Every structure is written in C-alpha cells, then in structure tokens.
Model the fold of this input.
Amino acid sequence: MVQDSTRLNGLRAKHGRPPAGPHEPQAAPSTLRQGQPRFRGLEAGHRACQGCGEALAARIVMENAGPDVMVANATGCLEVFTTPWPQSAWRVPWMHSLFENAAAIASGMEAALKARGRNTKVLAFGGDGGTYDIGFQALSGMLERHHDVLYVCYDNEAYMNTGIQRSSSTPHAASTTTSPAGKERMGKRHLKKDLLSIIAAHHIPYAASASVAYPADLARKVRYAMGIEGPTFLVVHSPCPLGWRHASALTVEVARRAVECGLFPLVELERGALTNIMPIRTPRPVVDYLELQGRFAHLFDETDTRAIEERDHLQALADHNILTYGLAGTGDDPVDTTGIAHVRRGGPLAERT
Amino acid sequence: MTMTRLTRGAWAAPGTSLEFKTGNWRSTERPVHAHAKAPCHAACPAGEDQQAWFAKLQEGQPQQAWRALVHANPLPAITGRVCPHPCETACNRAALDGALAIHNVERWLGDEAVARGWAYPVDTPAPDAPRVAIVGAGPGGLSAAYHCVRLGLNAALFEAAPEAGGLLRSAIPPTRLPRDTLDAELGRLLALPGITLNLRARLGRDVTLDGLRDAFGAVILSPGCELPKPWSVRGAVPADLHDGLHLLRDFMDHGALPDAARGDVIVHGGGNTAMDICRIMKRAGANRVTLITASALPGPNTARDDLINVVPRELEEALEEGIEVIEHATVSRLIMKGSRVTGVEIVSLRKEPGPDGRKRRVEFEGTERVLPVDMVVPCVGEQVSPDGFEGVLDGAYFWPDDAWGRLREDGVFAIGDARGNRGTVAAAIGDGRLAAQAVAARLLGGDAPVADLRPERGVAGLNTAYYPAMRRTAVAKLPVAKRGFETEIEGGLSRAEAMAEAERCLSCGNCLACDNCWTMCPDSAVIKTVEAATDGSHYVFDLDYCKGCGLCAQECPTGYIQMVAETG
Ligand SMILES: Cc1ncc(C[n+]2csc(CCOP(=O)(O)OP(=O)(O)O)c2C)c(N)n1
Ligand code: SF4
Ligand SMILES: [Mg+2]
Done:
C-alpha cells in the first residue's frame, strides 16, 4: 500500500502535500482560479522546468481544444511532468500510451467513441522524439486510416525527458548529448527532418506548424483543426530552456526569433497544398536566434572556421525556407510575424478589430 | 459505478496537481507588479503623469483624462501651447517611430474642458480654513492658488498688474497663446471658490511681506522675473538700448517698434523671449534678424546641456521664417559711431569643463568677425525686481533650500522663475503644486510631502515587439506668408486625432491589461481578475505555483512586471 511507503510520505511532507491517495477528498482550487475566463484543461502544479515551452504550448492547445476532448499522450516530458502519480494536471480524460504508439492509442479511442455514437474529439500528443522518430509509423497509419484525431507534436528538437539526446527534429549543428560539439563534429551532422511535408503527403485535410511565440496564431490553428472531421496535425515549436540552454525567461523570445529568421516557418497545408503562411515582416539574421542558446555556443568561436561555415549553412537553410514557402512579406500585414503579436490596452490588437 | 482497480496502471483525479505547490521551486526571484515612472512623467516640470491620463484616453474617457491631468496642472490649454515639452524629448516612443505629440493632446484636453465646461475636481474649502497669501498671479501663483484650494485652503492672490497672467500675458505673443484661450482658462481657475484675486497690489507699494506674514497662515512668493539682466559688452552700452523683454511688452501693448528695427538686427541671447522678439521683428519688417547664441542648434550630435533652450517647434518656425542663427558664439565688441551701434564683433565659443569640473564658456581667439547692424537687442535673461523683497532675495533670485520652496523665513515659500534655476511655465506650475503641498501639511497637519522616488522605466525596460507602428499625428501650421501678430500659428487636433494619438502611448512602467503575462505563463500562475487586483493591473500572481521563470517579466510590453529577489 502506498500509505505505508515511508519514502513517499517523506516526499509528500517535503513538498507540502497532504498524505492523500487519489480516492481521498481533494483540495478545491481557489475560486479565483475557478473563475478564469478560459478552459483550464492543463492545470498548475505540473512539474515542468521553469519557462518550459512545451508546458506553455500544451496549456494553450488545451484552452482552445477543450473541454469536450480526450487525450492520448506519448511518453516524454509532457506526460511525465503532468502526471506524477497520484496527481494529474489534466482536467480531461487523458491516457498515457507508450513512447511509440500515441497515434495508435488515439485511433482506438476514436473508433471506440464512434462506436458509442459520441462526438468527443480525440487529441494525440507527442514530443518530437515520439513523433518524428519512434511514433512515426503509428502516426502514418492513423493518418492513412483517416481517424478523426488532432495530433499535436510538441517540438523541442530533442529527447528532453531522457537527457537531451538528438532526434531527427534536432536542427543541424545543434549540440546534444548524443551529438556533442567538439573536435570531431560541430553538433548534429544531419538536417532537421521536414516532417510537415511528409505528413502533408498523406493528403490529410489540415497540417500546420505553429509556435509558442504567437499564441493567437496557435489558438486559431487549434480551433481550425478542431472544426475538421478527419486527421489533422499540428507541430508546435516549443523551446526547452534546459536542452537549448537559454534563460528560462527567454522562451518566447527564442521562439520568436526562430520564426523571424526563417528557420522555423509557420505554414498551413490542406490536402497537401500550401494554403497559408505567416509572412516575416523583417527577416532577422539567423545568428540573432542562435546567439541566445547554449546548444549553438560552439558556432560563436571566432577562431574556428567550421563555426563560421556552420553559421552560414544555417543561414542558407533559413533563406531556403523563406524562398520555398514565400515567407518574405509584402508590406505591413496585421497577421505577419510583427502584426500578429501586437497588443493594445485591454488585450491583443487582433481580437479588437 | 464502481471503479475497477487496474493491475498495471494507475489513475488520478483531474487537476490534483494543484496539491503540489510548485511555488516551492522559486529560489532566487519572483515577479512583482512594479509601478515605475514613465519618462514623460519624470521629465515634466509640472509633475503631470502623462501616462496616467493617456490611459484614460485609451479607455475612451476624455473627461477622466482631463481630471487626471489637472490633478497636477490646472492650465493644460496654456502649457499645451507654450511649454517646450521636455516630456516629448524624454518619450520612449522617440526610439521607435517618433515621440508622442503630448503637447498637442494636452492642449486638446484643455480646450475641450473649456468648451464643455468640465468642472475642476476640487471642493470648496471651508470658510474658516487657513488662508494663504500668494504674491504674483502668473502661472506659478495661479497653480499655487489652485492647489491650495484643492488641498482645502483658501488662497488670496496679490498681483501688481491690472490683470492676472504674469508673463503669459506680458511676454508671450498671441500667435503662441491666443488671448481668448488665456482668458478662458485663467477665468475658470480664478472663478473657483476659495480664490480671491487682488489686482494692482504690488509688494513694497501696496502690501508688505511682513504684513502678509501677519495676516496669513503662509506666504508663497511667485513674483516672476520682471527686470532684464544688465547687459554690456566690455563695459560699452549703446545709448538707445532696448532689451528684448521690453520691446516685446511694448509691441504687445502698442504694436510699435523703434525705427532702427527696420534694418539689420542682432538679438543676443537664447531663450523663448529672444526667439519671440526675433520673429516679431522679422514679421514687422526688419531687413535681417540674426540670433547670436552661446548654445547649439539641435543636431544628431548636440549634447542635451548644449542645446538652445527654446520650444523646439518655435525654433523650427523661426528658421522657416528666415531668422538666422549663429550658434556657439557671443558678442565680443560693439562698433559704435558716436553713441550709436553700427556693427558688432562676434567670436566663437564653447562650454568646456573647467578645472573645478563645472562648465565655463571659452572664447576662441582668431574666430572674431564683424557684422554691420542697425540695432542690437540683448535678451540674456531676467531677474527678480527687488522692491519689497529686501533681505529675502539672495542676489538676483530666491534660493530655497528644498523642492517645496521653503525659505529661511518661517512660513514663506518661493516658486517659479524667481527661483534662479527655473525658467519654464511648467516649472512654475510644478513649484506651485509642491509649495501648496508643503503649506497644506504645515497649516492642516498631516504628513509632510515626500518626493516620488519610483524608478524611471526607460526604453530598454520595455518589450517593444508588442507595439504596432503608428505615425505621430501631424498638426497643421499657418504658412509663413500668412503669419501675423494675432492668429495662432500651430493648429489643434480633432477629437479623432487626439484619441488616435493617445493609442500610441506605450504605457511605460504601467499595466496595459494586454493579457501577455496571463497568456504566456507556462504554469498558470497568473490569474486574471479585475476585482482582486488592487495594484492597477488586471492580474494577480499565484505564488503558490509561480516557479519564477521570468517569462512574464520578459514579455510584459511595459516593464510593469519586474523580477525581484526572493526574500526568506
Ligand atoms: C520504447 C521506449 N524507448 C525509450 C523510452 C525512454 N524515453 C522516455 S521519454 C524519451 C524521450 C522523449 O523525447 P520526446 O518525444 O522528444 O519528448 P520530450 O521529452 O522531448 O518532450 C525516451 C527516449 C521509452 N519510454 N520507451
Ligand atoms: S526538459 Fe525541457 S521540455 Fe522537459 S520539462 Fe524541462 S523545459 Fe520542458
Ligand atoms: Mg523532444
């Protein structure tokens, strides 16, 4: 029995938790919290690191998808930090799958709900490891079978929960514990996988990229996907202060620069065709993005010619994105990278007009 | 329904993570809402909080905005026209797409209050409330009287001239400050219950300082500077010398200038009076008007303390009208034919740090040049007319010990231009407010006024990614050819323009209620609530869950959220 576990009770005492099991009465959240004018699908008290972009992204996704949803969540930081037994930060039905099969579990949930005649939308959540890599075939199957599921990939560009191992989403030249920068290599040798194109090639109704730097855009994309019957896919750029080695306060700034330099293009594809992009009002040099992050620190060793070459390589990749997706803006646009963020007294500008 | 226990699984009730207070993790810093001074407020000599009244305009409440404004400055229609607006120089938006047109909006609010008859937010003081004597009904004295009434005191103004207004009436041309605007705003202020105005009451002639000290609870001296500073060039003074201030007054009274003013004129000085007399002489038909100033014209490399101290747009207009300016120069010799001036020698100079660290003027030998002239007009500043102030003046001015204007004589305060280091209408208005606060504390009890020590939020403390670009509203100006001696040169704003300009305010150091902190907290530790937020924001931090990441402070556009060291 858990109650007998001295170690658990010790931990509870240390962290100020009452020694309660899930079946015992729970403390009610404060009325202020209950009165929040948004759906609290992912509650406070989760154990994400300070400034975690993934926690921020998931909170925003839940606000805009909920409340009538069920979630299948692959192993990874999001799963671990939200559900330290006997507690859960989720306020919707939520199921932990394995690392590799969130899409398969979600497919089953959707089929079961359909059989019962229920309209509850199923969401599948995975990290980039769980999506780009190990869960990829399950995801491909889910898309191909046309399940009515919104799959959200929280892309923090490495296997963070197990200690920052490279994934196929890790950007070129980033240093991770399995692609360390040093004498042999300048961080990861290979390129970031263009997953969105592969997903779109499944000819699904909707696939898009979003970023925590632009919550209003992310919210719109979630709502749009929620309105579609059939498989939809979102990849959300979610900086990880621990793995990217930047200050926890800079999560949004780092994400913003990733979009503004072109390295992380925000695009929307419907039935495989590019239907929308977020134009970049003033493209920033890639170094503005790199310089904030320890995982690219080796690119700033001016005595190392490889560093200069890799910086130029990343700039060329960003320029290539800007060219292929047509990200260069044509004058001021209220929904470009600059306009979409604007606020005025009383809230975001976009919500007022 | 009974719950089945899973053998290889576990479950948890929704939202139970709330039992775990992640606030425990905060080790070094926590976010706080920290009101800071917007730079406009910090720079305003009158003490206006422009950010506060712009916020009311952003909420669509012009009357509330005016009430917030006149909390500090009761004469916005006037200052909106005559102030050199250091607020705009300080405005953080200057680093983005141009400073806010603060003075234009201030003027609009002032005019709007007059047009709509908005009542000043003051109560009638009790008839037996202490009485304060105020010497001089210029901007400083009027502000002091207003603030005395606002704080519950009765105020009696003693003015030597037959009308109130001081230099607003005697030294500022109607092209800058139309007389009906002046009369309307002064009239409303003087009509406030609790203020009495005694005209043609000159200190030393009709009343005495000792007499006032006996009869009143306190005396505030705001006589202004009526006398031109003595001027000579190495001892030489032309026989037909007219100083700028007198020329200006005479012209405004009778509309005439001396005959020599038709030829080539040199004005020596560098303040607003110098600028005004230059422009009036030019418009009245002078062949050529040249201003010789020790200061510099504005330029990309001009140091603040070197810049000519005039209303910036007045300088612009003067240059448009063909006034010539020789900067960094002084008059070094008068060339006389008999007792008449026929030329001046000028020499270049700069303010340079001296051995004692203070700036001094250094003339550069070998830079002398001679200009032929018909008239030289000194306009090098003014000083207090000493009659009635014997023993109280320290040299040419009053030098009180503190910001509240306290003089050594008990219960006597000095404010405005008569303090040697002031020099703007706004500074006199600010002085009037501070002196009234000190007087109220003295006569009504209560806490002595304290200085506002809040930090100033400069542009580096803002996150400017969140502000839409908006161009400064331009106002119409009378074309040079149409400028005369009466019609106001600078145009006004429409209501729509004023409201649009207010949208440009960045709300530096004060909450915009933009939701950024609420939207961007990964830990749902920012709670949105107007009711429970008592600090002027719409949010409270739930420190039970805040991990101290600093994201909210980083993404707060206005710098209103600051991370402070965790104590205990
Ligand atoms: C089959 C399997 N292999 C390995 C693991 C160990 N594991 C748990 S989480 C994780 C990394 C998750 O990375 P990602 O999907 O990118 O999510 P993140 O933690 O970065 O959010 C790994 C390798 C596992 N749980 N299951
Ligand atoms: S390791 Fe990274 S992704 Fe995981 S909780 Fe920490 S910040 Fe978030
Ligand atoms: Mg990952």
